[in-house]
Amino acid sequence: MALPDRIPIRYEPDYRSWCIGRYADGQFLGSVVSGYSKEYWVKVRRAGFGDDWPAQQRHYSVLHLFDHDGRHRLSDIWYVGTGQGEPVERAFARLQERVDALPGREYGDIAIRPFRVDFDDQVFALVDESDEERGDWAELYPNDWGFHPPWDGHYDT
Asked: What Rg, from alpha-carbon coordinates, does the chain have?
C-alpha cells in the first residue's frame, strides 16, 4: 500500500490541529512551532540537552495555504524569537491575525498533498517517510505529527 494522494488531517479544536480548515481559495493549516538552530543541534548530539534548552527554542508562527485539491500554494512563516512566554504569545497572536484575515474561513478537516518549505534552517513539510519498520507513513514537520493507515485524519505525536 502507498500513501494516498492527499493526507487527511482531522480538525481537533482543543488539540494540536486547532488551526486547520477551509477558506474561499482553498485550505489552510496554521500552527505555532519551535525548533533549534543547527549549531544547537550539534551541541545536543555531543552533550545532550542542557539547562539552556528553553532559551534556545526558536519559535515560529506558520500558516500554510493550499488549493482546494490540497496542493501547496504558499507559506507565511514568521520567526518570532527565542525563549518562553512573550515570544510564544506573539506567535499565537500573529497566527490568529493571519487566519482571521482569510475570506470565508471555516475550521474543519482538511486533506493536503506532500510539500516542503525550507526557512531559517528549519524544514516545514509533509513528507513521505514510509519504511519497512513503520510501513506507510507521512510526517508533518516541525510539528512531528505522524499519519498512517487507515488514513482517517488521526495522527501520532
From this structure: 16
pLDDT digit string (tens) for 39-97? 765 665 666 766 666 667 789 999 999 999 999 999 999 999 887 888 899 999 999 99
CA distance 96 to 142: 19
Question: In angstroms, what CA-CA distances link 105 with 44, 96, 136?
Answer: 40, 12, 32
pTM: 0.90
Instruction: Return the C-alpha torsion angle 88, 90, 96, 97, nearest 10.
Output: -160
